[in-house]
Amino acid sequence: MAVALLAFVGILLASYLTYEHWQIANGGATSCSVNAVFDCDPVLHSPYASVLGIPLAVLGLAGFAAIEVLVLWRFLFIERPVTRVAPLLLAGLCVGGVALGTYLTALELFVIHALCPYCVSSFVVMVVLSGVLAWTYWDYGMATLAKVGR
User: Fold this and answer.
1) What is the pLDDT at residue 148?
2) Is residue 132 included in any domain, yes or no?
3) Whole-angstrom Cα distance, residue 44 to residue 61?
4) In this structure, is residue 30 part of a structural domain?
5) CB 26 within 8 A of CB 32
6) How many distinct structural domains can be found in the chain?
7) What residues contact 148, with CB distance under 8 A and at least 6 apart?
8) What DSSP assignment string belongs to 23-86?
9) Where residue 39 sits, what CATH number does that domain have?
């Protein structure tokens, strides 16, 4: 259930970032600006804050929500055949989340020159969540690979 808790924390962080994004879109300012280095304003004002008009925070929210649903689905319906796919979907979401988070954090550091505390927190949650999932499903993955190799 640690994964479900981490995904819930990710949902909260992404929800808050979505709120902040819409605050800026409506002419407001963020409330998560700590100092010149830890400042959400330049990050959320940057052209990297959205893709095709969709705020990245919304994509993060969708990703964390999908992880939450898959984890709860697997927990509630563990013996159903469809749950065998859940670990693969979880792995894909986590790899994608960590890859995107790495790219975005690099942009914050080297292009924008400011770190959004909530964005970095969301990235850290995704990394920890991925580690917990890898630890949890390692045996499952090895067993699946052994079956494929036969």
Assistant:
1) 60
2) yes
3) 15
4) yes
5) no
6) 1
7) none
8) HHHTT---S---SSSB-HHHHHHSGGGEETTEEHHHHHHHHHHHHHHHHHHHHHTTTSGGGGTH
9) 1.20.1440.130
Per residue in 89-117, pLDDT (tens digit) is 888 999 999 999 999 999 999 999 999 99
CA distance 101 to 108: 10
Residue 7 belongs to a domain: yes
Q: Give the residue among 5, 38, 29 at the shortest CA–CA distance from 109.
A: 38
Contact (Cβ atoms closer than 8 angstroms) between residue 68 and residue 11:
yes
Low-confidence residues in the chain, pLDDT < 50: none
Six-digit token string for 140 = 């499952």
- The residue segments making up the domain with residue 100 are 2-145
DSSP structure class, residue 102: H
The CA distance from 90 to 85, in Å, is 9
- Give the residue among 117, 13, 150, 8 at the shortest CA–CA distance from 65: 8
- pLDDT number for residue 79: 62
Is there a domain that residue 150 lies in? Answer: no
Q: 């100092």: which residue's tokens?
A: 35
